[in-house]
């Protein structure tokens, strides 16, 4: 009976069958492909929200972890957590239909732009943090303080929110203005404004990140050679200095992996936007790009779990409910 209905009325192909003349059509994929996309997106959604929430709880609760570098990781975890929450809207749109209001569509895109921009900005701050720690270690504690980091993070989020709210001003004033049918979620940005935004939120930060990490890499390699050549002849004080440098180098390597994974996952989506190929992509390819973009937010806490023993210890304390004990915020987790 259902097959006959599709053939005669085509209702199963419409987002809103009762609005036959004005409803958008669904994206028709094989059932197996739809189930695969649904399972992948749902898994990423669950892992992203849970893992990043655990990281947020860890850094926020344990005082020992509230260092300048970890405060930047906290900002990144917040943005990743929000990306995970927004993935619920992507799951709803698996069939290509938007079932919520036009205003919610615009708000969804605005939040997406803000969070992505804040993530990129945080990556720049992380790169700058590692640059100062490795290239100017003697002045790191004076140049990079928790108070300054909090200020930089707040400015980063504020500017992201301000810029993209202004960028989407027309869409917010008239939601659904550019929709061609009911069930579509489309926003349009002025070409010049979009180009400026692309430079400020991707090309510019990408250039800065690559430059800073190239400098960090060169200095790190030089310091590693020096440490290897003098490791047998250092005194007690010198060995302490070497140990500090090793910890900084390890942090630089870990955060370098975070930045590299971020670029690998995010670049395809921005490349599609830059080349204007978004309208030429098939549904499956578009879904892959979206999954890869979102998957980065899930990978970050996994990287921390692999490289940071303190995160694994925090997970044990959380799961064993020791975090609920009085004075648990003062526990030594390093």
Automatic annotation (TrEMBL):
Q: Which GO terms describe its molecular function?
A: trace-amine receptor activity
User: Where does it live in the cell?
Assistant: Cell membrane
**Keyword flag Transmembrane helix:** yes
What main location does UniProt list? Answer: membrane
Q: Which residues form a coiled coil?
A: none
Keywords carried by this UniProt record: Cell membrane, G-protein coupled receptor, Membrane, Receptor, Transducer, Transmembrane, Transmembrane helix
For this protein, the parts annotated as crossing the membrane are 35-59, 71-94, 106-128, 149-167, 198-221, 255-274, 286-311
Domain G-protein coupled receptors family 1 profile: start-end pairs = 51-304
For this record, the Gene Ontology CC terms, alphabetical, are: plasma membrane
Hey, which family's this protein in? Belongs to the G-protein coupled receptor 1 family.
- Note the PANTHER family from the entry: HISTAMINE RECEPTOR-RELATED G-PROTEIN COUPLED RECEPTOR, TRACE AMINE ASSOCIATED RECEPTOR 19P-RELATED
Q: What is this protein called?
A: Trace amine-associated receptor 8a-like
What are the leading ranks of the lineage? Eukaryota, Metazoa, Chordata, Craniata, Vertebrata
């Amino acid at each position: 009976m259902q097959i006959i209905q599709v053939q005669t009325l085509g209702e199963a192909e419409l987002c809103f069958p009762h609005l036959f003349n004005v409803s958008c059509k669904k994206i028709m994929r094989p059932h197996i492909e739809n189930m695969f996309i649904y399972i992948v997106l749902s898994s990423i959604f669950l892992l992203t929200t849970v893992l990043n929430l655990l990281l947020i709880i860890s850094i926020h609760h344990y005082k020992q972890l509230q260092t300048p570098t970890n405060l930047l990781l906290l900002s990144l975890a917040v943005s990743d957590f929000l990306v995970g929450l927004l993935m619920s809207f992507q799951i709803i749109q698996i069939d290509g239909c938007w079932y919520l209001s036009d205003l919610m569509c615009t708000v969804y895109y605005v939040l997406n732009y803000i969070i992505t921009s804040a993530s990129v900005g945080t990556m720049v701050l992380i790169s700058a943090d590692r640059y100062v720690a490795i290239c100017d270690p003697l002045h790191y504690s004076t140049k990079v303080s928790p108070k300054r980091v909090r200020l930089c993070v707040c400015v980063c989020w504020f500017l992201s929110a301000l810029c993209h709210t202004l960028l989407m001003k027309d869409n917010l004033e008239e939601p659904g203005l550019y929709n061609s049918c009911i069930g579509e979620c489309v926003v349009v940005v002025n070409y010049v404004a979009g180009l400026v935004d692309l430079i400020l939120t991707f090309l510019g930060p990408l250039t800065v990140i690559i430059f800073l990490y190239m400098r960090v890499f060169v200095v790190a390699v030089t310091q590693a050679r020096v440490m290897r050549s003098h490791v047998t002849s250092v005194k007690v004080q010198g060995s302490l200095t070497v140990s500090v440098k090793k910890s900084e180098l390890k942090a630089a390597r870990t955060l370098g992996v975070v930045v590299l994974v971020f670029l690998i996952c995010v670049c395809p989506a921005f490349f599609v936007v830059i080349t204007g190929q978004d309208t030429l992509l098939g549904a499956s390819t578009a879904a892959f790009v979206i999954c890869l973009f979102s998957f980065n937010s899930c990978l970050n806490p996994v990287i921390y779990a692999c490289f940071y023993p303190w995160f694994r210890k925090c997970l044990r304390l959380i799961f064993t409910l020791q975090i609920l004990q009085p004075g648990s915020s003062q526990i030594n987790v390093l």
